[in-house]
Give the backbone structure.
Amino acid sequence: MPRKLPETDVVLVGFGWTAAILAQELTQAGLRVLALERGGWRDTPTHFPPTVAPDELRFYWRKEMFQDNARETLTFRNNTGQMALPMRRWGSFLPGEGVGGAGVHWNGQTYRFLPSDFEAASHNVKRYGPLADGLTVQDYGVTYDELEPHFDRFEKLCGIGGVAGNLNGDIQASGNRFEGWRSSNYPNPPMEMTFAQHRFAEAAQALGHRPYPAPSANMSRPYVNPLGVQLGPCSYCGFCEKYGCGNYSKASPQTTILPVLMQHPNFTLKTHNEVLHITRDSTGRRATGVVHVDLEGETYEQPAQIVILCAYQLHNTRLMMLSGIGEIYDPRTGEGLLGKNYCYQVVSSVDVFYEDKFTNQFAGAGALGMMIDEFNGDNFDHAGLGFIGGGYIACWTTNARPIETHRTPEGTPEWGSAWKKAVAENFLKSTSISTHGASMAHAANHLDLDPTYKDVHGRPLMRMTYDFTANDRAMTAHLTEQARRIGERMGGREIRVKPRQGPYDSMPYQTTHNTGGTIMGSNPANSVVNRYLQSWEVPNLFVMGAGVFPQNAGYNPTGTVAALTYWAAEAIKTRYLRDPGPLVRI
Amino acid sequence: MRGFGITSVILAAATVAASPATLAQDTSFAQLERGRYGVITGNCQACHTARGEEPFAGARPMETPFGVIYTPNITFERETGLGQWTREDFWQAMHNGRSRDGSQLYPAFPYPHFTRMPREEVDAIYDYLSTLPQVKKEKPENDLPFPLNIRLAVKGWNMLFFDPGPFEPDPGKSEAWNRGAYLVHGPGHCAGCHSEKNLLGADKESGDLRGGRLEHWSAPNIRGGENGGLADWSHEDIVEFLQTGRNRHSAAFSSMAEVIAYSTQHMCEKDLQAIALYLKSLDDEPRDQPDAPDEAVMTAGQSIYADNCSACHTSDGSGVPRFFAPLAGSGKVRNPDATTVIRVILEGARSVPTNARPTPLSMPAFGWKLDDSQIAAVATYIRNSWDNASGAISAGDVEALRQQLAE
Amino acid sequence: MGTMLASPAFARTIAGLPWSPAQTSTPQSLVGQHFLTAAEKHCLDALTGRLIPSDEYGPGAPEAGVTTFIDRQLAGFFGRGDRWYMQAPFRDGIPGQGYQSEHAPAQLYRRALASLDAFCRATFGGRLYAELETEAQDELLRQMEAGDLSLEGVSAETFFGLLWENTIEGFFCDPLYGGNRDMVGWKLVGFPGARYDYRDVLDHNGAPVRLEPVGLMGGPQWRVD
């Protein structure tokens, strides 16, 4: 029997970005908030200071920053005709574990989804007619206009550096003219660009595109955020994604919220406590709290008035499944919503090799890049292209960590003397153009529980069934071709096109942008949560994170995840607390 | 909020028990406010609170050069605190360093400074303390070697070094200057750390503020006039430092962090201005120019600095003011006593989080990574680069401090 | 390595922002730890020496200490698969499902190296892999990579994948782990190492930036003579 603990007002499951934002908002509203994190405490000066941070083997290849696969993983297959097997170690994506979650090891590329991304179904149907067979794309149920103030808050919290492209409807020449209107400029200027970005911008311009500096959560100057928390200037060390930042210069829960939140008397954080399931009363319509377990195997029942899932998208979805809340999606019948519309990101690249120019890409940062948006979302006419959606094309200089990043030209052998020579010759003289495209929801791609494999507690693992769709393939081919055209004009000796082809492979790292599974929407028949991220079935249960995206967009998700969190927090504070119950009545 | 058990923060209510002592109190708002502010200026909470435990209940170990002294419980709990103390008892302690039973208090309790406080101020503190939540908490036995464990010995110390009596204003100076001098030498007891101690633990020259050393830290010279340690700090720099824990020159950590956390950040700006005015009036003797350090050591030190320090302190030593301390021109770096510089490199340091600046930006420890000669080289480099010229540090200095800290 | 962080393995409530002086979560170099036998190391030297050979461009994997690196890694949590999901059942998957061997890395190496030498002895007149001509060694590696070589009790393709991964790791990792000895891997490509500040060189505009590499524990330039 779990030991019953005293009740709290709000229990947060997991303690990364969304939990930190909610805890700050809800403690300020006078609520007692408890966060349960299954990983440990982590902070800059002790766990990833500059004295230890630039260590490629330890943090990435030995995966110190990420969730422990030995305790729990997921199984994967491309389609229902295959047997799903466990991902015995992480590859294609890297869920975080410990305080700050993946918000500690992200790159810092911070976007607002395009206005049309939130209306992907109605917008595309209106412009291009019915969606292709199998696409289960739908609208978010919340609009860009509604989220704008919340995007703004997150950008100011993080000190995002960038250039506005649309200030209250006025298009700005040096920013992204395709972006939704913004009520104010970025709080910081863009990062300092290097050689590769300049070449990319020239080439893109020559092709008629309008390159702009990528919005960055790596600080372009010292910054004090609205909570009074200080972030240092980025030193362009090239150890962002997969690493913690040692000098307080990448926005994370630790560097933006925790100094204030951790002093708040209404806030409690328990680490090394993993939530096993959500408890409900006899009606099933009300969550009564959660059951969690510590490292010694002691279990606890934590009663709460409000339960909010703030873990990673995969874990929130699985926790709903393990708690029996909602019907799990079945691709054969199309019935069930939990686990539906799992989406990912479709990426490709074009490497550029110079003969006598040095890119010196060790001097870089996670969100140091120039990019174009001409092929993102519905910024271009898709008529006759055979797909909807799109993505951005960017030239990043993020790192020269040599175990991971050692580009070789086309035709180089995979090992041996010739490989060694090619690596030596091109290491400092190459760069890469990335395409980063939307993955559109499809009836065949989904998450459910694995019938065979179990976690350390004996519970079923999540099973992922995913492959790139015809829409994805057409989209990425189109983007890759645009990137190739830019790459050819960047003044290099040669390029190497690396298209995304073949079945989705769960091993090579692509992005940690997994979405869907607990999707949001306009009514209980099409979604797990309503437009305020509140469970339709259990109104005192909320679900944060990219799991609520009905389908992914071309941009990286963090900015939109955070804006949705602020949006939900506001609904809880201003409406739910006054009248606890469904915030949307059908 | 309907049907919803939301609690807001309930501040622990002060329980005031009716003891003989409390009957004789003035508990008017004005009096308690005066006492509360007096407690802030005297930084009572920092020493009289064990880490993470009830405020003012004492039992915090104070390391002195002679042994460990535990601070007493100053809540008005009857058995273990001041519950049986009268106002007169309290005055005797604050003014003369005498305990209720007539025995001498150890001068780790800064009565040689508190003696400058007027009777009304001390009474107000007494009245305020009497309203705090009472906590029953015994303090551990002090760990002092003979003969210091005999309180009688302190009597002799007093005869030599103790000069009781309230602060006497200098009529030739402004009211603000005198207020500053009073705060610095009275309740603020700044000389407790910032003045050199003699072999018997007394402030030399009765608190010259030329810097001191205690608990393996070197506290810098805080004279603000010509040649003083704070010569290049403006009046506003001093106020900002005491208010927010940092300014364009430096950030507070260790003991000074506590002073700012519990005391100065809560003081009114007018008083901080007065302190700044006073400190800025204190000139000092010019320092001797030390010999230039060995070239090879400076070369190694520069490499170590570039690879380990520049990410925060920047390659030109200018740092990021208010974020990462500038080293060029830093009083801590230039301090003739390099204990703090070496210690911060060995152990790291955490800048004080304050209400104004809540981020405890921290320097990591290097003691595990750099050996004694490398720490000596990089310390020598920062002490003798840019416009700093403060002399070399030897590997032996580092080794000695490493050993002392390990003990 | 110096102080290891006393990391509490128990659940706890965190108050404020915990910080203590002299506490750092330091890397585990695994120096002095061994898993491989002399014969296994001999074979591994030969294998990694073909993957990254010593040639006119500089030292290869054996000279960079890759075998030492792999030996230490196999003796630690990586070799034991402590952070991998190693629950049964084990089945052959499609390539996109990644590593599916029932053997954690250390045991996979042990079996693969033994099988490879046994195969060589049987096929090449009693000679071990390390004793073959380089052409024959390369050919065997190519067959392993392509999955065309069948080794007793272990997938040659899986082994090749892991071996190549660990060889690159050992060639380019921080020298504190035993590989990349004298930073030869970093010197080969021009990686400046474990630095944390490149602001001064950002405006290189395509010109070379020459910086001596430095490891987490330093380099010759930190030496005080």
About this structure: Residues 12 and 35 of chain A are 5 Å apart (CA to CA). Chain A has one domain: 3-81+94-576. The radius of gyration of chain A is 23 Å. Chain A touches chain B through 35 residues (CB under 8 Å).
